[in-house]
Amino acid sequence: MESDSLVQSAASVAPIAGDELKRRRFLQHAGGVLAGAMASAATGAFAQGESASPAAAQAQAGPEYPPGVPPWSKTPGKPISKHPYGMPSPFEKDVALDVRPTDKQYWSSSARSPLQDLDGIITPNGLFYQRHHGGVPAIDPAQHRLMIHGKVEKPWLFTMEDLRRFPSVSRIHFLECSGNPGYGVHGKTAAQANGLVSCAEWTGVPLKTVFEEIGVDTSAKWVVAEGADAAALTRSIPMEKCLDDALLVYSQNGERLRPEQGYPLRLLVPGFEGNMNVKWLRRLHVVDAPAYSREETSKYTDLQADGKARQFTFYMEAKSIITSPSGGQKIPKGVCEIRGIAWSGHGKISHVDVSVDGGRNWRRAELQLPVLTKALTRFRLLWEWDGKPAVIVSRATDETGYVQPSLEELVRLRSLNGTYHNNAMTPWRIAENGELTNAYA
Amino acid sequence: MESDSLVQSAASVAPIAGDELKRRRFLQHAGGVLAGAMASAATGAFAQGESASPAAAQAQAGPEYPPGVPPWSKTPGKPISKHPYGMPSPFEKDVALDVRPTDKQYWSSSARSPLQDLDGIITPNGLFYQRHHGGVPAIDPAQHRLMIHGKVEKPWLFTMEDLRRFPSVSRIHFLECSGNPGYGVHGKTAAQANGLVSCAEWTGVPLKTVFEEIGVDTSAKWVVAEGADAAALTRSIPMEKCLDDALLVYSQNGERLRPEQGYPLRLLVPGFEGNMNVKWLRRLHVVDAPAYSREETSKYTDLQADGKARQFTFYMEAKSIITSPSGGQKIPKGVCEIRGIAWSGHGKISHVDVSVDGGRNWRRAELQLPVLTKALTRFRLLWEWDGKPAVIVSRATDETGYVQPSLEELVRLRSLNGTYHNNAMTPWRIAENGELTNAYA
């Protein structure tokens, strides 16, 4: 990594690239696979890496199909399931949350979303990242209550049915743990490097609506949110955020929240660090001053070089990571679509630049539309890898003009004393044999 | 149902309602639940139906919590799972696909999405509707091939790795079986009434890109798509659609397609009837004329009153259904948010009107933004139920100006001879005790 070149101005960024690649023929390196009656192999520009692909190698040798008929076309498949909740194919069993085998225990622990295997911006509920402080409680929704009290006209106790009766909204937002990935952590895969981030469509009640109902004192400045888990995780939320876009959420991607995501109720404060989005929410205490709880004093503060800590650093700043190709993967020479995700707690992503030479030169990537505020944004850039060692890296800019920093830049600003809010770029090194590794590892 | 009033012009529709309800106090019917130190019950406007809610009834009796601490707050919960793919809470076990117990067999059968339990527009993969013609094949993706041949310059055989190397896009679109719900079917629940529709974020390759690569003859007018299932399900797709927004899809809601949805590859022709989106796609034959396959002649055609059949009726026309409250549910008197989904195979939903008097008068519902083309669109309308019998029904209009018909209107146009393309409104009757049933049942 050339750290200097990573901080060059946006003025040096080339216009959106890839059009010249799109105009060329992707299949130029090979004749038609079915040029007579029978197959030889798919070896176009997108399939030229025979050595990297066992399937392509087999195809090269002359596949049985067609005209050979595979077994699954010969007999009826599985009938409609008696257990009517679908699961992924057994062939995808390795696509799973990434759990560190070295953790001493798994009650206060985390599991990373397999970013390198995911497409689009929606994270399926089964693969949404997890971070728990006291394990996952098994809450009976009929017994669960949300208490709102303190500086309000009408302190209130809500059942889940009460809350579901309120006017609702649905919004697509990312969530990210502020410890994603920590400092000095240079994960081998995209999951290990930055997998404590995910994105879903959330449905619930605007907190503003509920607060208007129970009458919040105009003098109240903070709301202390408490979870019903054994950790009773407690965070202080500024009243301004509660009256802006905060939600009391009961559904995620259409269905009720999963236990790992706070079933039956969680707080959502879009763009704020993960653990402020309190799961298993049981209490909102409306007060004048923050609680200075464990999770906003000894933890989740940012120790600086001078020994002082930045506190209440709510916002997850702009970040991006290339998810394909990424660490642990191997690519063949030739055309390659670089794919990744970008996000910002401050709003929309305005653009993402990609470098294939470790930050010397940048090209603007295409963003998948629509770009939503405080949501994952998928970016893509066509590139032709010439087979020489390279370092690929992405850099996000959000609508406030904030530019994602390099790690060197971030450390210069904030030292290596901290644990949280590392939003630096993740460069991947490509070796001559096509294997990718974390450029910092 | 007053069929005449159902076809009145949009001019008689009242402006967006609900604002006056929002301004009133939702909690007006009850004192503060925590007005001293301890709880009594949540009995505001959204919680006034004590008899309908065992939880509320229990709260009424004086809940133990707070200050009583529930068991899940006292001991650590479940640690991070060793099987790192999440599942819904056991308390949600009844939220499942709806399978007809009366089907003679389950290889050529269907399972309905539980619309009455879902929020937002994304259907979670485990609850996406299913329709199979020869069971669900268990396909090894490394062995799977897509053959494209016929009127092309370079007939080709693609592996999954080849296809994943092509430039990709992600799009949110609905899918609906054209047999949803059939005629003479008046399901008791929203799932049974119209549950063969779902919506997801799909990722794959634009078919146009692949066709440009292999060089399609300008004379070619149709593409015959064939599945690798035992039914070898075969449908003819107009070339115009293939060069417009058709996709070769390998991912759904971030992860690889589920087996029930065509793993490892399906065709997506947004807005066209479900079975044209051929699952387990193994072949595209580029030709001059349609195949006149079983699924576009003896099946999936629309028999009219005169004995002639409408053929190649691709488009799923504008439709909507109220999902909450809906058949099988029970509501208390008072404020109620009417929620539902609308969609159109022709593009975006422009508006949805809701009637609470069986179609005499209509109010415009709020649409959840952003409204996406050929995607489910969530609508909502605040309403205060006075406890008298009522019939609630929704009516969608799409951006072409097409208005969803009443059943009477549709039958008048097309007779009851057909099986497919019933996009009529679904009215729900509310009895004095708050119970909802299908108004046609």
What does this structure look like?
Two copies of one chain form a homodimer. Residues 1-11, 28-32 and 35-65 of chain A have low confidence and may be disordered. The first copy, chain A, starts with a helix and ends with a strand. A five-stranded mixed β-sheet of chain A has the order 5-4-13-8-9. In chain A, strands 6, 7, 10, 11 and 12 form a five-stranded antiparallel β-sheet that branches. Chain A has a five-stranded antiparallel β-sheet with strand order 19-18-22-23-24, with no helix packed on it. Chain A folds into two domains: 3-16 and 315-438, Immunoglobulin-like (Sandwich), CATH 2.60.40.650; 117-301, Alpha-Beta Complex (Sulfite Oxidase, Chain A, domain 2). Chain A contains eight helices and 24 strands. The first copy, chain A, is mainly β and 441 residues long. The longest helix of chain A is centred in the middle third of the chain and has 8 residues, at 207-214. The first copy, chain A, has helices spanning 3-6, 19-23, 54-60, 160-165, 190-194, 207-214, 239-242, 407-414; strands at residues 98-99, 109-112, 130-132, 146-150, 156-158, 169-176, 197-206, 222-227, 234-238, 247-252, 255-256, 266-268, 281-287, 302-303, 309-310, 319-324, 334-343, 349-355, 363-364, 366-367, 377-385, 390-398, 428-430, 436-438. The interface between A and B is large, with 139 and 139 residues. Chains A, B: Residues 52-63 have a biased composition (Low complexity). Chains A, B: Pfam families: Mo-co_dimer, Oxidored_molyb. Chains A, B: Residues 52-87 are annotated as: Disordered. Chains A, B: Residues 313-424 form the Moybdenum cofactor oxidoreductase dimerisation domain. Chains A, B: This is Sulfite dehydrogenase.
